């Protein structure tokens, strides 16, 4: 294999990685718990938060709601991580370079 072919393959791989990363960054991921639904983008930035609790929030409920937010965020974050692993896993450690 000559150097020119090797460079062309490396450039193609870089374009592929960049394209997939942009797709993931622009995707949205929902996480949910019993009372809360959150939406993150692929950069793990919070886009929306919806509270599905209809009752009066008392101190005990407030603590439960805080826990539900944590659960929903963890759920959404794990979905972002899984999507990155699925799309970028083929590139191994190179994915972190771009």
Characterization of this structure:
- Helix 1 runs antiparallel to helix 2 (59-88).
- This protein is α+β, with helices and mostly antiparallel strands.
- It has a three-stranded antiparallel sheet with strand order 1-2-3.
- The chain has helices at 3-25, 59-88, and strands spanning 28-32, 36-41, 46-51.
- Helix content is 54%, strand content 17%.
- The protein has one domain (3-97): Nucleoid-associated protein YbaB-like domain (Ybab, Chain: A), CATH 3.30.1310.
- The chain starts with a helix and ends in a 10-residue tail after the last helix.
Instruction: List the domain count as a whole number.
Output: 1
CATH class: Alpha Beta
Kindly, what is the distance between the CA atoms of the first and last residues, rounded to a whole number of angstroms? 25 Å
Query: In CATH, what is the homologous superfamily?
Result: Nucleoid-associated protein YbaB-like domain
Radius of gyration: 19 Å
Main sheet properties:
3 strands, antiparallel
CATH fold call: Ybab, Chain: A
Strand runs, count: 3
Mean pLDDT: 87
Strand proportion: 15-25%
Give the overall silhouette.
Answer: rod-shaped
- Provide the helix percentage: 40-55%
For the biggest β-sheet, the strand order reads: 1-2-3
Could you give the order of the helices and strands? HEEEH
